[in-house]
Each structure stands twice: as structure tokens, then as C-alpha cells.
Amino acid sequence: MEILEFEFMQNAIMAGLMTSIICGIMGTLVVVNRIVFLSGGIAHAAYGGIGLAFYFKWPVMIATMGFSLAASMLMAAVTFKVKHRADTIIGVIWALGMAFGIILVDLTPGYNVDLMSYLFGSILTVPKSDLWVMLIIAILVIGLVMLYYRDLVAISYDEEFARIRGVPVKRLYFILIGMLGLTIVMVIQVVGLIMVIALLTIPPFIVEKYAKSLGWMMVGSSVLGAAFTLCGLWLSYRFDLTSGASIILVAGGVFLVTLLLDQIHIVLTSRKRRGMLNNI
Asked: pTM of the prediction?
């Protein structure tokens, strides 16, 4: 409990919990809509925003947010209009965004020691000013999901049926990708852009087989993500490890255990069925 006495740890816990809730909500939509690759594209393209912030001395979170939103809207337009070539174009935007950011960082005078924190996360150094920005993003994303929940469920499971019902599929898709862009900016603060996909996808993947609805999947993913974050922070503090990597290591470990348990369950069920058939 002594770790709670430090302000940086209090900020880290607040940032981690907010990120876990948003990742649980948006990660569920990412997994169900099968847009994991698009999420990776936005995350890596966001490096261009980091480069802009370093070069022009802008606030990093604000610059990254703007660049991520622009990249996410471009990717949304591409994936919506030319789906058969979407993965190729997303890959190009992904690479261009990172290259743009790297070049700007190279052109920035001086060596930027904080740069690695954006690749692997810097949750222990999140200032209170960023916490307020994260809170605004969290409220905005949660509000939009609650407002469009039924329509998001419709386009997630049956896009054609949603169109027949009169759901504005195109507008909702752009809103979804925009929310994803904002979420990724939050996650970069916690685990970095390299490991952002893990925190977005691992909790929903684990919970999906047990959840009875999309809403419960979001709740379960948020709780699981919060548990991963708190365990990872404790490991980071106790053994002096990188916080972002510790969080992902915990999540990945639980993910592998669940896969192993699923395989054991399948084998045992198969043997039981064979035994019953033999008895007959």
C-alpha cells in the first residue's frame, strides 16, 4: 500500500484505470468489427503527431490527438470505399506516418530522451494535465458509445441488415474510427504505440466467449483490463521493470493460460464423448 503515497503512482493508477475502461469499450468494438489491423495502422501513424510535437514544441498529447484523428479519418475513408485494397493502403499510411515522425524528430535540435517513452509507454510520468485530457476523451467516448449503442451493435454484427433498418452506417463507421483514434492516444500514454494493440484486443478476446451481449463484453473487458494494469504496475514497482511492458506481460500471460485451458477443455470433452459412444 505504500506505493499509493507517491503522487506519480496515483496519477499512473488513474491513467491506467481510465485507459482500461476505454480499451474495454473500444477494444470490444475493434474485435467484433475485425479492425485490429486498422487499429495498428492508426497507432503507428500517430508517431507523425509525436514528431510534429517535438519539432514545433507543441503539447505532445494534443498534437498526437490531432494527427491520429486525421490519420483515422483517412483510413476510415479508404476502408469504407475500397475494402479489397484496404490492408495495403493502411500499411502505406502506417509507414508514412512513422517515417514522417522519425524525420521530424531527426530535424529537431538536440537528443530527445523522452522519445522511447512514446514507443513503450510512460504511465509513471503522466502529469495531471494529461489526466484531465484523458478524462475528457473518456467522457466523450463513453457518451458517444451510449448514444449510438444500438446502432453500433447493428453494424458490428450485420452491416447489411443495419442499412435496411435505416441505420446511417457510413456516419457511424467514421464516428467509430474517430473514437478509436482518440482511444489510441490514451493507450500510447500507458503502454506505448508498439504495444497498443495488445491492451485493446487481449481483454475483449478473453471475455468474448463468456459474455452474453456486447454490453457485458465491454464491462468484462474493462474490468479485466483494469486488473492487468494494476498487476502490471505492481510488478513494475516491485521489480523495477518497464511499466508498459509489465502490463502487457501480465495480459499476455493470462491470454496464453486461457488458450491452454480452452485446449484442455476441448480434449477432455472429446474424450468424454468418445467414452459415451463406446458405452452405447
From this structure: 0.89
